[in-house]
Design goal:
The complex is a heterodimer of chains A (about 500) and B (about 550). With about 500 residues, chain A is of the alpha+beta class. Chain A has helices at about 1-5, 65-75, 125-130, 190-205, 245-270, 315-325, 330-340, 345-355, 355-365, 370-390, 400-410, 420-430, 435-440, 450-465, 465-470, 480-490, 495-505, and strands at about 15-25, 80, 85-90, 100-105, 110, 115-120, 135-150, 155, 165-170, 175-180, 215-230, 230-235, 240-245, 275-285, 290-295, 305. Classes of the chains: A alpha+beta (about 500), B alpha/beta (about 550). The interface between A and B is large, with 48 and 63 residues. The site of zinc ion has 8 residues of chain A, from loops.
Chain lengths: ~500, ~550
């Protein structure tokens, strides 16, 4: 990014990005009441006096949200606060029925921590060198992660002649974990990588469903440039881009914003502190950011401790549970695939990105006896394709992992060749009730006896002296010419076994 | 945005959901309409039928206490319906003079009383408050009728749920008989800040009944309710109790659930009771105290059997007298004399009197008037016209404001009275960036010092004794334009709220002009039993007989 931009201009710059990600926690009920968090219900059907903010109602903490936040904290290497409290963030907006949001201000549940992302661009900047670890990952430091309740949804009705806004409070009170990074990201790609890995962790650990379309993961990006001019580094005013709710919009919005800030700097020369901090919204259709708010000072939210809630102290038991539950990160699975099973890196990453269930399916196949190499190949070529075509998750794949492993082992054992195995797979997918052996048999594949094969080979070699000569001259591949003839005489002949026997016979001639 | 649109089921529902205004109106699952309206504003319409009373008029005085009412119900000398009709008739006759009760549904009350009678007839063993009429401050949510907080903002608001303590009262068999007047959102000490107009003191209708739970105190004092529920954030139960010559208890913070108590100062608010005798307070408190999982600040400690523990004679009682309070320059001399006499009484009964000091008590008022408004400024943010309650139109020319902002501004400036707006502004200011540390944070620190004062005092004594208010009831209108003077009325009461400790006020006589005088007792957290026993002991030993102001006496029924 910086390279291409700087070639267009005489000024070099570095991009500085910090992300604030709102992760919707996978709790059955809301943060402070017992209403369901289910997505997509009719407006205002999942509400009660508490999340409607009716007079006299009081919040009661959902402890599951604390557990999930602690689990996230452990996975992100944060320090879990021994004492955490609730604060009110006061502002008026129609989708905020109490006139304040219950959040955490100065004592968040998670402090510090980091997330490693793959290195995209080897950095020549000395300041960045420290952030490189030996695994060729870039460490993105976290400031904090805190719990808060979501607001409702405003729906602006712009049908002809109307200027109405309707409010759906189903989402009001849904638990969010806001994860704030240090400004350690230096490109749109890195921001996307960070978000991708963060989402994967949340999904692997059951902290969030990670469904971006449903808003389970929403990011705000703080972006500015450090421009080199006249031997000085000049930071441009920081811009906050709000509500980026897809990986692609994060990437596009940052790219756009970098260009815009650069042009703006060339035009005005204004540095950080010389012009107000802006909040801009990303317009996905027009592909641009628009000014939403421009303020000299940050809005005054008049934070103060919520007198309706008691502070939370994590018990040793809760900490232990969080530690235990946070083990199964994508990175841990990645290590198993790469180092224990030697899966090719690109293949491993595809499996990892599919989620924990898919990786578990693969591991189960391997445990059942399939070779990792063949298992991963079949996962990528057959299983994932099926899931994709049928739009179903792995738990609805009709064949259990041990059964698929059995089919792959039939290949290893020479009972079938790959194309036969694929036919058998198709049979089983058609009727999942039939077993592997039955499927193979139904294809008419009968294992040919070794002595029968030897007889066949002897005949073929006698009839094809030219092939024998070629092989003897070192062209072992010439033996493949015999396969077609063999198949004509015995369609069950395994080409691999046939070639093996022929080569052996030629060698001893 | 279009994706979210499609989730509304078709245009007709859409139209139903959208108000014609340029702002918002939600449709919610809580059909506000299912709460039953009180029969008009029943108060002013009058009862539909003339009740006939089986009582000789002189019987009334003996029926003042809940104990005698319960005995009468138990020995079947009277039906619950007759009791209900009796008090309804008194309300009908006398309420106009004092404006204590602002809403009532006589039919529902009589039906409830008849239901208790039926249970009694079937030989059911009845709960503690069975058939007892009780009024409730109009800041406590009731499904029945409106819950207004005395504010234009909630003038038509109907709560979809009952406050926890209201449910508890129903469970204990009490008959809800009226919502009582109050200062708007409990902000005030004279019940003058109410859309219903001021309540008046039954002992002198030109004077205030105190506040903010003034309607409850006046209703009990005038014999319109044998007991009433109020709330106390800075003295709002004890001060009106003192002014009206009745007993009032503010329990330990968290002892009674705040669920359904519409918040003013959440860290200070607590509901409590008014009655004629301390013994009656014990009965009412027992029926509303206890843990409620819906209130995170509710205390899990088991509730003692107050009605029993009250009879434990506290012979070796150590009573602390707060010098700062008794020697306060502003203390009325007749009140000081009455307090001295009470101290002598306790001494004579064998209690030891010990001087104690609460050195930080002079900071109570400023501390309270930071913390309460700060919390109020946030608690009252929800009244913005968007979702329920009063809504004003945006100004036609909203220069610099969006229509939404203009709607907010108009709604909140027209919907709230002056005192509420004043406290919201105070709190907003004190919480603002740059002022937070100097005001709110400092107030929290001082609050801790005030608590420590109490802790230290309670190492030496069992209870504290002193005045409830500096003076007896002042005249209506006397202080309404001088908020600081009015704030200073809370001098002796706010300490208990800041420290979260229980306190009660009880009558100790009258001035020569006939105005009631009140004494305040305070005890350590959760020592309501000590407090009640000390008060009950005093009333027993002095043969206390509750009195009714002459104009409201039974003979004038
Ligand atoms: Zn709810």
């Amino acid at each position: 990014m910086s390279d291409s931009a700087s070639t267009n201009s005489p000024l070099a710059y570095r991009i500085v990005i910090g992300l604030e990600v709102h992760v919707q926690l996978k709790t059955e009920t809301k943060l402070f009441c017992r209403c369901s968090t289910r997505f997509g219900q009719s407006p205002n059907t999942q509400v009660c006096p508490v999340c409607l903010g009716l007079p006299g109602s009081l919040p009661v903490l959902n402890l599951h949200a604390i557990e999930l936040a602690a689990r996230a904290g452990e996975a992100l290497h944060c320090e879990l606060a021994s004492f955490t409290k609730w604060d009110r963030k006061n502002y008026f907006y129609p989708d905020l029925p109490k006139g304040y949001q219950t959040s955490q201000f100065d004592l968040p549940i998670c402090v510090g921590g980091y997330l490693d992302i793959p290195i995209r661009v080897p950095s020549d900047n000395a300041a960045d060198a420290a952030t490189l670890s030996e695994n060729m990952v870039k460490r993105i430091r976290l400031v904090r992660a805190h719990l808060e309740e979501d607001a409702g949804k405003s729906m602006h009705d712009e049908r002809a002649g109307r200027a109405d806004t309707r409010i759906d409070l189903n989402r009001a009170g849904t638990p969010l974990l806001e994860i704030v990074s240090e400004p350690d990201l230096s490109s749109a790609e890195e921001a996307k990588d960070y978000l991708t890995e963060l989402r994967l962790i949340m999904v692997y650990l059951g902290i969030s469903d990670g469904n971006m379309q449903e808003g389970s993961l929403r990011a705000d990006a703080n972006v500015n440039l450090h421009i080199e001019r006249d031997g000085k580094t000049i930071p441009t005013p920081i811009v906050e881009i709000k509500n980026l709710n897809s990986f692609r919009s994060v990437e596009r919005a940052i790219d756009y914003e970098v260009e815009r800030q650069y042009r703006e700097f060339l035009r005005t020369g204004l540095a950080m502190g010389q012009s107000p901090k802006q909040t801009r919204g990303w317009d996905d259709v027009l592909g641009q950011t628009d000014l939403q708010r421009e303020k000299e000072e940050a809005a005054d939210y008049r934070y103060f401790p919520c007198p309706d809630l008691v502070p939370v102290q994590l018990t040793e038991q809760q900490r232990e549970a969080a530690k235990h539950e946070s083990q199964f990160t994508p990175d841990r699975y990645r290590n198993v695939l790469l180092h224990t099973h030697a899966v090719k890196e690109t293949d491993a990453e595809i499996l990892i990105q599919q989620g924990r269930d898919v990786v578990d399916y693969f591991l189960e196949m391997v445990r059942a006896g399939a070779t990792p190499k063949r298992a991963s190949a079949w996962m990528l070529q057959d299983v994932l394709r099926h899931l994709n075509d049928q739009r179903v998750p792995i738990d609805r794949y009709p064949i259990a992992a041990p059964k698929l492993a059995e089919l792959l082992m039939a290949i290893e054992q020479g009972k079938v060749d790959t194309s036969q195995a694929k036919q058998a797979l198709a049979k089983i997918l058609d009727d999942p009730s039939i077993g592997v052996a039955a499927a193979i048999e139904s294809l008419g594949i009968v294992r040919v006896d070794v002595s029968e094969m030897e007889t066949l080979c002897r005949e073929l070699l006698a009839e094809n002296p030219d092939v024998v000569d070629k092989v003897k001259a070192g062209n072992t591949k010439a033996v493949a010419a015999l396969v077609g003839q063999a198949k004509k005489r015995n369609r069950n002949a395994d080409p691999r076994v046939l070639q093996e026997i022929c080569l052996k016979m030629i060698a001893s001639m | 945005m279009s994706a979210t649109f499609s989730r509304v089921n078709g245009p007709s529902e859409l139209d139903r959901l959208i108000s014609e205004k340029s702002c918002v109106r939600i449709a919610c699952r809580y059909p506000i309409s299912h709460a039953r309206q009180f029969a008009g504003s029943g108060m002013h319409k009058g009862l539909s039928r003339a009740a006939t009373f089986p009582y000789s008029l002189s019987m009334f005085d003996t029926r003042l206490s809940l104990r005698t009412l319960r005995e009468s119900i138990a020995n079947r000398s009277v039906s619950c319906r007759e009791i209900a009709e009796f008090f309804l008739a008194r309300i009908e006759k006398h309420n106009a003079a004092i404006n204590a009760i602002v809403a009532i549904d006589p039919e529902i009350a009589i039906e409830a009383a008849k239901a208790i009678d039926r249970r009694r007839a079937q030989g059911e063993s009845l709960p503690a408050m069975a058939g007892i009429p009780i009024s409730v401050k109009d800041i406590l949510c009731t499904r029945q009728g409106t819950t207004t907080c005395g504010s234009k903002m909630l003038a038509k608001y109907q709560s979809p749920f009952d406050a926890h303590l209201v449910s508890r009262l129903y469970e204990s068999g009490a008959v809800l008989m009226g919502k009582t007047n109050l200062d708007e959102f409990a902000m005030g000490g004279s019940t003058e800040n109410s859309i219903f107009g001021p309540s008046r003191n039954p002992w002198d209708v030109a004077r205030t009944c105190g506040g903010s739970s003034g309607g409850s105190a006046a209703a009990v004092a005038a014999g319109l309710s044998p007991a009433s529920i109020g709330t106390d954030t800075g003295g709002s139960i004890r001060q009106p109790a003192a002014f009206c010559g009745v007993c009032g208890i503010k329990p330990t913070y968290g002892r009674v659930s705040r669920y359904g108590l519409i918040a003013y100062g959440s860290s200070l608010d607590v509901a409590g009771a008014f009655a004629h005798t301390v013994e009656d307070l014990a009965l009412v408190l027992a029926s509303i105290a206890g843990h409620d999982p819906r209130d995170s600040t509710s205390l899990p400690d088991p509730v003692p059997n107050y009605a029993e523990e009250i009879h434990q004679t506290p012979t070796s009682l150590r009573i602390g007298v707060v010098r700062e309070h008794l020697e306060d320059d502003g203390l009325d001399s007749e009140l000081r004399d009455a307090l001295q006499a009470s101290i002598e009484t306790y001494k004579r009964l064998g209690a030891s009197i010990i001087d104690v000091s609460l050195p930080h008590s002079k900071y109570c008022i400023p501390t309270y008037y930071i913390i309460a408004p700060c919390e109020a400024s946030s608690n009252l943010s929800r009244y913005d016209g968007a979702h329920y309650g009063f809504r004003a139109e945006p100004a036609p020319n909203t220069s610099g404001l969006s229509p939404l902002e203009s709607m907010y501004e108009n709604t909140r400036s027209q919907g709230f009275g002056a005192e509420v707006r004043r406290r919201i502004l105070l709190g907003t200011y004190a919480l603002s960036a740059g002022y937070y540390d100097a005001y709110y944070l400092k107030a929290l620190k001082v609050r801790r010092l005030i608590r420590k004062d109490y802790d230290a005092a309670f190492e030496k004594v069992d209870i504290l004794l002193g005045p409830t208010t500096p003076r007896p009831a002042f005249k209506l209108g006397e202080k309404i334009n001088d908020p600081v003077q009015l704030y200073l009325e809370d001098l002796f009461t706010v300490g208990a709220n800041l420290a979260g400790i229980p306190a009660l006020s009880m009558p100790i006589g009258h001035t020569r002009a006939g105005l009631p005088l009140g004494m305040q007792l305070q005890a350590p957290p959760l020592r309501e039993s000590t407090l009640l026993a000390a008060g009950h002991w005093y009333q027993q030993q002095t043969s206390y007989i509750p009195s009714i102001p002459p104009a409201f006496a039974a003979s004038s029924t």
